[in-house]
UniProtKB/TrEMBL annotation:
The chain crosses the membrane at residues 232-255. Residues 115-136 form the C2H2-type domain. Keywords: Membrane, Signal, Transmembrane, Transmembrane helix. GO terms for molecular function: transcription cis-regulatory region binding. The keyword Metal-binding does not apply. This is C2H2-type domain-containing protein. The lineage of its organism: Eukaryota, Viridiplantae, Streptophyta, Embryophyta, Tracheophyta.
Length: 279
C-alpha cells in the first residue's frame, strides 16, 4: 500500500513539474505574440487614420478661403440686420466639416501654432492641419457637415487667395454654373418670404457675389465692401493726436519763451540807449 501511495505521489509531482515547465517555456512566446498584436493594431490605426485623410476629398485651404469671404464680406451686413442664418443654409458654421477643428487652432505667433485638443505645438499652420488629419480625424463634423470648399466657385475664393489667371480666357459655362450656385445660396439662406431683413440681404448677396459671375469683366466681386475699417482709423487718428498734442504745446511754449526773452533783451538795450550822455 505504501508503495502505491509513493508511486502516485511521484506521478503527481511529475505532472506538476511538467505543467510548470510548459507554462514557463511558453510565456515568452505568449508575451511576444501579445506585443506583435499591439504593434499590428497600432500600425492599423495609423494606416486607418491616413486612409481617412485620403478619403476626405475636401480642401482645407479653399474651405478656409470660403470661410474668410463669409466672415469679411457677408457677416458684417448680417450683424447690421441682426439676422441669424438657418442651419439649412450651407453657409452656416455648423455645416462646415472643419468648423470645430478650426476653432481649436491656437495662434501664438508667426512661427507657432498650437492644437487646442492636445496642446501640441507646430511651426506652421499646414503642419497643424496634417496633425488634425492624422490624430483628430474623429473630431471632424461628418454627421451634418459639408465641404465649404464646394462653394468656392460661388464665393470667389480665388480673389482672397490672390490667385491670378489673367492669361486664361473666361469660361462662359463655368461662370453660368457658378452664378446658378450663387443664386441658389441667396434663395436658400435669405428667403425673401422671411421679411424685410432677409429681402435686403438677398439683394445684397446678389450684388456682392452673384453679379460678378460674368465674362464682361466690368463687375467685380465684393462690390459692397467688407468689414468696416473706419473704427480702426479713428482709433489710430485719436492716438496720433494724443501723442502730437503735447509736442505741439511744447513747441508753442518754447517759441513763446524765446519771444519773451528777445523782448526783454530789446527793452534792456532800449533803456541803455535812452540814458543821457555826460557833457
Amino acid at each position: 500500500m505504501k508503495k502505491v501511495t509513493t508511486i502516485v505521489s511521484i506521478f503527481l509531482i511529475a505532472l506538476l513539474c511538467l505543467h510548470e515547465l510548459v507554462h514557463v517555456s511558453s510565456s515568452p512566446f505568449l508575451y511576444a505574440s501579445q506585443l506583435c498584436f499591439q504593434c499590428r493594431k497600432l500600425k492599423q490605426d495609423q494606416e486607418q487614420g491616413h486612409e481617412h485623410a485620403q478619403e476626405l476629398h475636401c480642401s482645407r485651404e479653399r474651405s478656409r478661403a470660403a470661410r474668410k469671404v463669409i466672415e469679411e464680406y457677408l457677416i458684417p451686413f448680417m450683424e447690421r440686420e441682426n439676422y441669424q442664418l438657418s442651419t439649412k443654409c450651407r453657409l452656416h458654421p455648423e455645416n462646415d466639416i472643419f468648423s470645430d477643428q478650426e476653432e481649436h487652432k491656437i495662434f501664438i505667433d508667426r512661427h507657432e501654432w498650437r492644437c487646442g485638443y492636445c496642446k501640441k505645438s507646430f511651426r506652421e499652420e499646414k503642419f497643424l492641419d496634417h496633425h488634425f488629419d492624422n490624430r483628430h480625424y474623429n473630431l471632424l463634423n461628418l454627421t451634418h457637415g459639408k465641404c465649404l470648399a464646394d462653394l468656392c466657385g460661388a464665393m470667389h475664393c480665388d480673389a482672397v487667395m490672390n490667385f491670378r489667371s489673367s492669361r486664361s480666357k473666361c469660361n462662359m459655362a463655368a461662370a453660368s454654373r457658378n452664378r446658378h450656385l450663387c443664386e441658389s445660396l441667396a434663395d436658400n439662406c435669405f428667403p425673401i418670404s422671411e421679411g424685410p431683413s432677409a429681402g435686403r440681404l438677398h439683394e445684397l448677396f446678389l450684388h456682392q457675389f452673384c453679379d460678378a459671375h460674368t465674362c464682361s469683366g466690368k463687375l467685380k466681386p465684393f462690390s459692397r465692401g467688407g468689414k468696416d475699417q473706419s473704427s480702426f482709423f479713428r482709433l489710430a487718428a485719436g492716438a496720433l493726436i494724443l501723442v502730437l498734442l503735447p509736442v505741439f504745446y511744447l513747441f508753442l511754449y518754447l517759441i513763446q519763451s524765446d519771444v519773451n526773452g528777445r523782448t526783454q533783451e530789446l527793452r534792456r538795450i532800449s533803456k541803455a540807449g535812452w540814458k543821457t550822455k555826460p557833457s
